[in-house]
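In keeping with the milestone schedule agreed at the kick-off meeting, the structural modelling team has produced records for the first pair of proteins. Each record is given below as a sequence line and a structure-token line. The laboratory manager (R.T.) confirmed that both were archived under the project's standard naming scheme.
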Amino acid sequence: MNHQEDYVNKRRKKKKIMLKSNVKITCKPYNGNSKTKAFIDLELDDTLVIKGLTLVEGKDGLFLSFPSTKGKDGNYYNSVYSLDKEWLKLLQDACIKKYNECNQTSQPASSGGEFR
């Protein structure tokens, strides 16, 4: 058995537990002279809080930026990230929607919702 087959067999033996998360999004708009438009906090299943996400104005519109740290090589690396691109797209769209709602009321807003 070669190294790749050994790796595949080990992966098959691992039992994956999939959780369906209820995500509460808290949006705090930022009105400074910056590409940062809002600070986002997530609360997953009333159990885990992730702080430090931001909505940033890019050349193609708003996008969700995750907390990152600067490595020794000078590059930035996300400390939190999603392995599921579809879930990430749903989360980003929900955060942008929440940001738009916040801007209409000028108040921080939060909402819950299910993501799969």
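The second protein of the pair:
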Amino acid sequence: MREAVKDEIIRCRLLNMTAKASWYASQLRRELGLRNRRWARGRAHVESYSNPPVIVYAPEHPTDEDQSLHPKAQERLLGDPDVGTPPERVRHGNFFDAAYAAIAARPEWMRRFGKIHAQGRALPKAESGPNAEPARRWRELDSSMSSDALLMNVFCAPGVAESAAVRRALGVDGDAEPVFGWKARVPLASGRFDRTEVDMRWGGLLVEAKLTEGDFQTRAAGVVEGYRDFDAVFERELLPRVALRTARRRAAVEFPEEFTQEWEDAATDDEVAREFQEGIMALAREAEQAEVGYAGYQLIRNVLAAFAEGCSFCVLHDERRPDLREAWFAVMAAVKSAEMRVRCKVLTWQELAALLPEELQEFLDWKYGIVGPGRMSSPVGDVTDSD
């Protein structure tokens, strides 16, 4: 009886966290959508077919006409690589100009643009190049909602990785440079390794960057408990649990409309139809089998990666997402060792912004609404959904 009550309390707490996460994430997406609709003016971009639409940017490269200009004019438009002059025409609307120039000059950083946008079908087809090259496929880093793009905007910008203040804030020692999309080797109980991708490794620090993502993902208990160091690092009973629903087979039902409407979208202006559909879907979810899983899977996995590598681990999130901080603290509280707990960190983009160059701070303010503590972000009231 006591265990049943405990499980119900945990379930209600997780449902509450999920509801809050959904609200905070949707509010931030809405604000970023408005800010980027303004920022996108005069920059190559498209809007997704989703509701609300997401701004997705395209790179802008020099044309043949630019290449034929007088050397002085060419330097102004394309930059001078010998002195590091930032270009005016080699840019990407989703990036701070100086950061994108630095990315373009580093093949290992530019490889991050190899990740194709997962929702490419929800976007207009990109135009072909000026010389009839095949249309470029949309990349994840093109999206205005991308936390990886925000991460690279900050840490690829000249002067940031070299800043003593930034290094102190994150606890980074030595001369190491940031590595994006670092492949960890997290040991499994089977003797093999999970080659999970960490957003950034900077010396002895692993970083998970978040912006508008809904949560830190969930995984079945069998997967999470299959890591070699799981019980050495965590008190499993203290970790947040979830009931994972497994998709059921769509069996025949007495009334065919209940089967079809379960998977259809209700008319947006028909409240009765929406309520009817939601009731059908609720019954469908109850009919699905459930298995025990863990919330905060990305956090658990990255803490295990930091433990295996002897590193620290930091979550970088927006202060407008307190739900993410709460989820991180829930996982951090289950870490057994005090020594490992002090290697687990959290920092907001806003706290970091105060340490950055002035021009980068201005970019983060207008495009993301990110400003240092005690400052007011630029207004978005002059931009409307119909603008």
